[in-house]
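Posting this for the archive.
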Amino acid sequence: MDRIKVGIIGPGNIGTDLMYKVMKSRHLEMCLMTGIVESEGIKRAAGLGFKTSVNGVDAAAGDSDVRIVFDATSAKAHLHNAPILKSAGKISIDMTPAAVGPYVVPCVNLERLASELDFNMVTCGGQATVPIAHAINRAADAEYVEIVSCISSRSAGPGTRANIDEFTETTAKALHVVGGADRSKAIIVLNPAEPPLLMTNTIYALVKNPDEKKIAESVHDIVREVQAYVPGYRLRLPPTLDGNKVTVIIEVEGAGDFLPPYSGNLDIINQAAVAVAEKLAAKMLG
């Protein structure tokens, strides 16, 4: 079967987990891992037989085999990398909160964005909560959505910690732009509990047309859609209605491809990114 070759910029935990997920894909072929130093991630990719480089974005832009590039660096780095990849004609899937390109949440708006060259994966919290915000909004017209993403401190690496401000801003904006809420707010909590706890996301919404049955049906439908590409995504608390206030709690368990299962926050954004890349690759292959 023909497959589309991809490259990954950033050989850290996110990039390495992405590599293992790409290796399981029907439509994607892992081709290149690139960074800026000879790291353990670079050595791991080389040991698996993939091309590697320490020339960063230039290696991905200059590789004629690579057609889709995952940028697993940082928001600041992607601002530099995006125009280079665009000039080289590469499709870029941005794993950072840089938001150069449009936000994409596969089960909500991917079909409307198929002609883009830069796809922003929002944040881990965005991938977990925007589908629920969208489901509530389409059923009951959400005037306000607030989410609290609680992740294990162990699963928050240097990149996540450096991008806390961007996380809250980007997630909140995506709840409005993609999720449909009139107003929105996002909060992230790093939980130091031992043993590490699974990612938990609490979604609060104030709605204009409270209808418990419609909201429940809509939320259950969207959960099944997310589970198609993130099997560890599940309802911990089904929609509950108190007047015009809706509360939903989502738990995410990682697949354990490279990162531990408690790192559902990192796993969900990677699973979503691969789902986007597979959809694009399927169209490119006709």
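Residues 177 and 234 are 24 Å apart (CA to CA). The two ends are 12 Å apart (CA to CA).
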